[in-house]
Specification:
The protein is α/β, with parallel strands linked by helices and about 240 residues long. It has one domain (about 10-225): Rossmann fold (3-Layer(aba) Sandwich). The protein has seven helices and seven strands. Helix 1 packs antiparallel against helix 5 (about 180-190) and helix 2 packs antiparallel against helix 5. The structure holds zinc ion. Zinc ion binds near residues 17 and 131. GO terms for molecular function: hydrolase activity, acting on carbon-nitrogen (but not peptide) bonds, in linear amides.
């Protein structure tokens, strides 16, 4: 594939917590950054209510937000994400934020950035309430701004390799080969140190740790009507 084909295109990822970007779709972000895509990451919260406090614990509720902001900045460096924006919402409260104001803020970002691709969580399949809430608001913002570009929902692991049990068909899934970008993904995992410290596999020698990652990351298409079979590119 021509790796310069996407140069200068823009991707906006709107997630809930520091680490969503790395743990869920870090390979894809790294791949597109290497191809010259300008990536903006929005994290609704600073993950300040995370239960993992380091191992042995060295964080508390007061220090966690700042630590996780630093970690996310470092992860963005590994992935090639150029711009990072926080919405300054308290962790675990995204679903309680006044929805209209949240949609308005995200819509303003979409208007400003004019992204070719928007990534967010599926409002039901996102799992965590913060994920579902930011996904719902981002989807509404995307619709409100005229639906230029493409919207995709991120998915966990290889669940969408067989999407039927989630009510999707293979035609509605994009599958991105991230094999060449797993070193960057691993570095981003390690940057989120307070979250990954207790996961022993993350700290194994690189060649061993890398075997834990799948070759593909999967995305559900928002516009199911234009689904034309498994695509290998989001743009
Ligand atoms: Zn999350």
């Amino acid at each position: 594939m021509n790796t310069t084909a996407n140069k200068g295109k823009r991707l906006l990822a709107v997630f809930a917590h520091p680490d969503d970007e790395s743990f869920i779709c870090g390979g894809t972000l790294a791949k597109y950054a290497r191809e010259g895509v300008e990536i903006t990451l929005v994290s609704a919260t600073r993950g300040d209510m995370g239960r993992r406090m380091g191992n042995p614990p060295y964080l508390n509720r007061e220090t966690m937000a700042a630590a996780r902001e630093i970690e996310l900045n470092e992860a963005c460096g590994h992935l090639g994400v150029k711009r990072l924006i926080f919405l300054d919402i308290r962790d675990k409260t995204v679903e309680f934020v006044e929805e209209e104001s949240l949609i308005t803020r995200i819509a303003a970002l979409i208007e400003e950035l004019q992204p070719d691709v928007v990534l967010t969580f599926h409002e039901v399949l996102g799992g965590h309430p913060d994920h579902c809430a930011i996904g719902k608001a981002t989807t509404a913002a995307f619709q409100r701004t005229g639906q230029r570009g493409s919207l995709y929902f991120i998915s966990f692991g290889d669940a969408m390799a067989r999407p039927e049990r989630f009510g999707y068909t293979l035609r509605e899934i994009a599958r991105i080969d991230v094999h060449a970008h797993l070193e960057a993904k691993l570095a981003a995992f390690r940057a989120h140190r307070c979250q990954t410290e207790i996961d022993e596999w993350v700290w194994l020698p690189d060649q061993e740790a890398l075997t834990r990652f799948g070759r593909y990351e999967y995305f559900m298409k928002w516009d199911r009507a234009v689904a034309t079979g498994v695509r290998e590119d989001l743009f």
